[in-house]
UniProtKB/TrEMBL annotation, chain A:
<feature type="transmembrane region" description="Helical">
    <location>
        <begin position="161"/>
        <end position="181"/>
    </location>
</feature>
<feature type="transmembrane region" description="Helical">
    <location>
        <begin position="256"/>
        <end position="282"/>
    </location>
</feature>
<feature type="transmembrane region" description="Helical">
    <location>
        <begin position="214"/>
        <end position="236"/>
    </location>
</feature>
<keyword id="KW-0131">Cell cycle</keyword>
<keyword id="KW-1133">Transmembrane helix</keyword>
<dbReference type="InterPro" id="IPR004513">
    <property type="entry name" value="FtsX"/>
</dbReference>
<dbReference type="Pfam" id="PF02687">
    <property type="entry name" value="FtsX"/>
</dbReference>
<feature type="domain" description="ABC3 transporter permease C-terminal">
    <location>
        <begin position="165"/>
        <end position="279"/>
    </location>
</feature>
<keyword id="KW-0812">Transmembrane</keyword>
Automatic annotation (TrEMBL), chain B:
<dbReference type="InterPro" id="IPR015854">
    <property type="entry name" value="ABC_transpr_LolD-like"/>
</dbReference>
<feature type="domain" description="ABC transporter">
    <location>
        <begin position="2"/>
        <end position="221"/>
    </location>
</feature>
<keyword id="KW-0547">Nucleotide-binding</keyword>
<dbReference type="GO" id="GO:0005524">
    <property type="term" value="F:ATP binding"/>
</dbReference>
<dbReference type="InterPro" id="IPR017871">
    <property type="entry name" value="ABC_transporter-like_CS"/>
</dbReference>
<protein>
    <submittedName>
        <fullName>ATP-binding cassette domain-containing protein</fullName>
    </submittedName>
</protein>
<dbReference type="Pfam" id="PF00005">
    <property type="entry name" value="ABC_tran"/>
</dbReference>
<keyword id="KW-0067">ATP-binding</keyword>
<dbReference type="InterPro" id="IPR027417">
    <property type="entry name" value="P-loop_NTPase"/>
</dbReference>
Length: 285, 221
């Protein structure tokens, strides 16, 4: 008989009989449901993030400059329009201003109104140099719409945090499911594990077998959950994007990267949880 | 070589009573030894200490040159691979075929499939089960199952072969066939210890004997 070579990992097709002991129905279905929730949570987090970014970019780029009524607002608007980073600097017509003020002031044609210049900056514009120019204008006041946008941003951040918390809960529930499934597998194959152990199988070899099977089941379930999530997310995007972003939804609006990552993450959680559960149990032998 | 020095064993669930106590003996390399005694004398517990599925509560157990109490946990699998074990209730894996059951120790050791096949076929031929290689263990008779368990225990050429009542569930003809195979392993150089409550087999196959009663060694020779 041949000499025994250096010890290597346990081989063989399925010495623990895990394909039967860890059946491929209930756990993937539950993990699939978890993955669907995770997909919705991820979409929520990403959507809130994109909304916050858009609001921030919009807010930082939209300015309203108020000038004294006797200022040469047209010349100032032209000067500001030529600054690098300025997309547009337009004088708000006096007639439009009077229309806006009418609900509060009534028809008062002789009342002098300040001159207003509506400015749009590029999102990447250097606002510091712009502000320096504005500060030199006598009597000028700049309105950045900051307060309202900050509140909206905080709302978006809260939504993002809730989505992340939901993802964490889904992950923990998933890990708990894998722990229960692993313990059930251990109970079903206790005798087999003991025999392999007594034949000289290493704890890591046995744990790896379980971990691989659980990772496989979790990946299958998460893939199913991700597939089911696609139409749900599409329906959501189709309704939300026209309202929020003022355009039609496209396939590129779906979080494909996150959806593709779900089976991998689920497999990772399944592998690690099963591995730890097995190692803890085997330590007691 | 196996050496027990003042070995005692208490099961945690045994209420503090000693299942084994004061065991002092040595098995020489390449020896064949009967382990005798009535049911409940502690034979299985002693063999479990020997094949490392239990740790002694007292004294020192040395197996194949390793002091078990001082051996780190990570070193146990390598030592277990040098010990073959046969149980009265066979302990075969029902979801594996005859061939795969016999191949298990070699697969655990990572032997390549190409080399493993020849060794397993050779051992199945030796125990008379080559024709049943693809069968499920549940379709084998008791004697065949015990011979399959024996083939699994010896396929990796262990230095120590521990058999716990291997003939307990067999008729006389099958029991003699199993004992003949165990003696064949001894002839090939393996240290063999066989527990039995039979008074007939040690007379038919004379060899050194340890006799246990109530967890104590009452004779050695």
């Amino acid at each position: 008989m041949a000499d025994i070579p250096r010890l290597r990992h346990l081989k063989g097709r399925d010495p623990l009989g895990l394909r039967r002991a860890l059946a491929d129905r209930l756990l993937p279905a539950l993990v699939g449901a978890m993955a669907l929730l995770a997909a919705l949570g991820l979409a929520g987090a990403q959507g809130a993030g994109r909304l916050a970014e858009r609001w921030q970019a919009g807010a930082s780029g939209q300015l309203l400059l108020q000038l004294p009524s006797d200022a040469d607002a047209g010349a100032i608007a032209e000067r500001l329009a030529q600054l690098p980073g300025t997309v547009e600097a337009a004088l708000v017509p006096e007639e439009r201003l009077r229309q806006l003020m009418a609900p509060w002031l009534g028809e008062v044609p002789n009342l002098p109104l300040p001159r207003m210049v509506a400015i749009t900056l590029r999102p990447d514009a250097d606002q510091t140099s712009f502000l320096e120019v504005v500060q030199d204008l006598p009597g000028a006041q700049l309105e950045t719409q900051g307060t309202a946008i900050q509140q909206a941003l905080r709302l978006a951040e809260v939504l993002q945090a809730l989505s992340v918390a939901m993802l964490a809960v889904v992950g923990l529930v998933g890990a708990a499911l894998v722990t229960v499934a692993t313990r059930s597998g251990i109970a079903a194959r206790r005798e087999t594990i003991l025999i392999l152990h007594e034949l000289g199988a290493r704890d890591s070899d046995i744990a790896r077998r379980f971990a691989r099977r659980l990772a496989q089941l979790c990946a299958m379930g998460a893939l199913g959950g991700a597939v089911v999530a696609v139409p749900a997310l599409w329906a959501l995007a189709d309704q939300a994007i026209p309202v929020v972003l003022a355009r039609e939804a496209t396939a590129a609006d779906l979080p494909w990267g996150s959806l593709l990552a779900l089976p991998l993450v689920a497999a990772g959680i399944g592998w690690l949880t099963a591995w730890i559960t097995l190692r803890v149990w085997l330590r007691r032998l | 070589m196996v050496r027990f020095s003042r070995v005692g064993l208490r099961y945690p669930e045994g209420g503090g009573a000693w299942a084994l106590s004061g065991l002092d003996f040595m098995l020489e390399p390449g020896s064949f030894t009967w382990l005798l005694g009535p049911s409940g004398a502690g034979k299985s517990s002693l063999l479990r200490l020997m094949h490392l599925s239990l740790r002694a509560s007292d004294g020192e157990v040395e197996v194949l040159g390793a002091n078990i109490a001082r051996l780190p946990r990570r070193a146990l699998p390598a030592l277990r691979r040098r010990i073959g074990v046969v149980f009265q209730d066979y302990r075969l894996l029902p979801h594996l075929s005859v061939f795969e059951n016999a191949a298990l120790p070699l697969r655990i050791q990572g032997i390549p499939e190409a080399r493993l096949t020849a060794d397993v076929r050779e051992i199945l031929r030796w125990v008379g089960l080559l024709e049943r290689a693809d069968a499920s263990p549940s379709t084998l008779s008791g004697g065949e199952q015990q011979r399959l368990a024996l083939s699994r225990a010896v396929v990796a050429r262990p230095a120590l072969l521990v058999a716990d009542e291997p003939t307990g569930n067999l008729d006389d003809a099958q029991a003699r066939r199993v004992i003949t195979l165990l003696r064949e392993m001894h002839r090939l150089g393996t240290t063999v210890i066989v527990a039995t409550h039979s008074e007939v087999l040690p007379v038919e196959y004379p060899a050194a004997a340890l006799r246990l009663e109530s967890g104590r060694l009452v004779s050695h020779g």
